[in-house]
Amino acid sequence: MQLRAQLIDGIQLLSTQGRIDQAGAEPFSAALSPYLADCQAGQPAIVLDFAGVEYISSIGLRALMLAHKQATAQQGRIAIAALTPLVAEVFAISHFDQVLKVYPTVADAIEALR
């Protein structure tokens, strides 16, 4: 799993594709790790673009929870944008959309975190 990164308006946009499940959660966490290390007060916030994520399992949600906890502990900010319908359903059922900031579009997320 790879993250495509680009800095937009002082926000670190990370785009990913595929499945964040048993096989994909660890590579996702490893790819996210260097960006999380820099997600601190006064540093760029992170927006995860999930438009290309087909599925997320409970282990994928765990990876996101750990990322959220790390960013929060470092006084950083992290949000998710552009959930696909299936992933949005998983977030709603698990109430994960109430744990993390979720935005309908990348543009909305960037505007909110700017």
TrEMBL record:
Q: Which InterPro entries match?
A: Anti-sigma_ant, STAS_dom, STAS_dom_sf
The residues covered by the STAS domain are 1-113
Please name the Pfam families in this protein's record: STAS
PROSITE patterns to which the protein is assigned, alphabetical: STAS (PS50801)
Q: Which family does it belong to?
A: Belongs to the anti-sigma-factor antagonist family.
Which NCBIfam families does the record associate with it? Answer: ant_ant_sig (TIGR00377)
Q: What is this protein called?
A: Anti-sigma factor antagonist
The protein's organism comes out as Chitinimonas prasina
Classification of source organism: Bacteria, Pseudomonadati, Pseudomonadota, Betaproteobacteria, Neisseriales
